[in-house]
Amino acid sequence: MSGLLGARTCSRPGEASDLKSPLSAKLREPLTEARFQQLFGDAEQERELLAEPRWSELCRRWKRRTRACSGPGAWRLLLARLPPLRWLPRYRWRAWLLGDAVAGVTVGIVHVPQGMAFALLTSVPPVFGLYTSFFPVLIYTLLGTGRHLSTGTFAVLSLMTGSAVEQLVPEPLGGNLSVTEREQLDAQRVQAAAALAFGSGALMLGMFALQLGVLSTFLSEPVVKALTSGTALHVLVSQLPSLLGLPLPRQIGCFALFKTLAAVLTALPRSNPAELTISALSLALLVPVKELNVRFRDKLPTPIPGEIVMVLLASVLCFTSSLDERYNVQIVGLLPGGFPQPLFPNLAELPRVLDDSLPIALVTFAVSASLASIYADKHSYTIDANQELLAHGASNLISSLFSCFPNSASLATTSLLVDAGGNTQLAGLFSCVVVLSVLLWLGPFFYYLPKAVLACINISSMRQMFFQMRELPQLWRTSRMDFAVWMVTWLAVVTLSVDLGLAVGVVFSMMTVVCRTQRVQCVALGLAEGTELYRPLKESPKLLQVPGLCILSYPTPLYFGTRGEFRRMLEWHLGLRRGKKTPKTDGPPDAVAEPVRAVVLDCGGITFADAAGAREVVQLASRCQDAGIHLLLAQCHASVLGTLTQAGLLDRVTPEQLFVSVQDAAAYALARLELAGPKTCTVWV
């Protein structure tokens, strides 16, 4: 017990201490919270902490917001909301411009076939995928904080949007539509997809107004990776009819994947040999090119644009061989030139699409924020999660006026942008130039492009998502709980649907967090001789435990879900259960437990406490008082102490029972309560 030895005794309560500078001495007296505030804080702050509600904090926040209305405040706000005003003046033109130009053009070349392919996944004509590869990219360049993020069409969102569009605008049962009826159906589906983009954008802007960027943390990494991996399997199965040339209706709802597989197997004898051959040849080219780009990314000056090569070869082959007329191969057809006329979405449709817009908004923000954070950490800069909400919300809402469907950051194009040497958001402008040239002049060259090639592009772009499953063995070794979250989310996405799978994954992930807080044990601490270090008694039998003094640590939040376990564990340690005469001991098996006369509760691990948890502590103080046990609280966070005070803790204990550390509380207990051991209460510094 040498860590508690000293020569001076404690001053009596209310008596002035000669402690002037605790940090200048090797020995000092135990510090209570009140005494600490006298020495290092101010009395007004102490009274606020222990007695009054903290209205001053609200006043300070209000003053900060009102100062933003001044000239300098408005300029700071403009700098925060328009990131190019910050990074463009510091742009290294000679060092970065060439890399941004090459990366932007490379990504733009990939955007063209990928945008058209993902448009088919969304159940809208291919040209609207080009619109979605232009307007959102341009808006994010002006508002986004992710320097290496590539936005546009994304397979997960396209699949979610396509399922919602098929529900909102189902295809007639007959299926044999005239050209006019097909155009009307496509127009209705485009409006539904644009309404989904408008709704998800409005939700993200509302989240930005409420500063809810922190919500991205609720979609953990296992949930996001399982969601994208499961969605990749949905994309693969949904593209099988296009690969085989089977005009099958799209399956939606729960078990859609298995319904689609059953329909494909049933209709397999009716597959189109020409489209099957085109699909096989396309995959035979795209998959090896993808593998080459990954294996030789450090040696290639820029990734091989396998998609655009395949598009050109297939278009030339279909045109020269008249495959559309001779073998009934489905082609893209005419891509309208120019831009669509701006149209405001039908507000009457918004209530119908709100249920589908919410998961789309959450997935958009979660995937984009996680991707931006990964590359920001890799390249040593920071992103603003709330500004990302503004950027993606505005890009979805504004682009919906030009008939775009929901969009977000893309895993494949972001990786491509980084590998091609992109440095800043300026690469997005070069990408927009490529897509713009297709919209204005090069659209007719894609007239004879077979839709089966677009389906192959969809499948080949899922490579990175499929390979996420290779991380499962490492995840199993690292955290079994995260592995369980990954598997539950993936199974829910595959068997049910993307929307329901996301909900199941989030709920299960949050349940694991709650279960972890409820499984935490209240630990008895002992003193390492010759030091002031208190460690769990179970870690070493050599730790010292003073008879009659119990030092407990509760390392988890105290709220309605944990208060029952908190009460049971404290009763067990202190012997407060009915019919229990002696407390539990964590010492040697042959140790004789003595009645507890003083207990030190280390509250350093209690990061927050709600009203129910605070009442539990007050009831514990009352029961300890009735049992003749002196309760001392140590290391209470300011917010926790405020909650306990409002719950009436100071009616049961005095301010002299609140200490700044476990060492101070233990020294006080040893000196004042006449326990076995030294009768001093000085503490090493």
From TrEMBL:
GO cellular component, one term: membrane
Domain of life: Eukaryota
Residue stretches spanning the membrane: 95-112, 118-143, 192-214, 304-323, 483-511
SUPFAM superfamilies assigned: SpoIIaa-like (SSF52091)
Membrane topology: Multi-pass membrane protein
Cellular location(s): Membrane
Residue numbers spanned by region Disordered: 1-22
GO biological process, alphabetically ordered: transmembrane transport
Xref: Pfam families: STAS, Sulfate_transp
Alphabetical keyword list: Membrane, Transmembrane, Transmembrane helix
UniProt keyword annotation of Metal-binding present: no
NCBIfam families linked to this entry: sulP
Protein name (Swiss-Prot/TrEMBL): Solute carrier family 26 member 10
Lineage: Eukaryota, Metazoa, Chordata, Craniata, Vertebrata
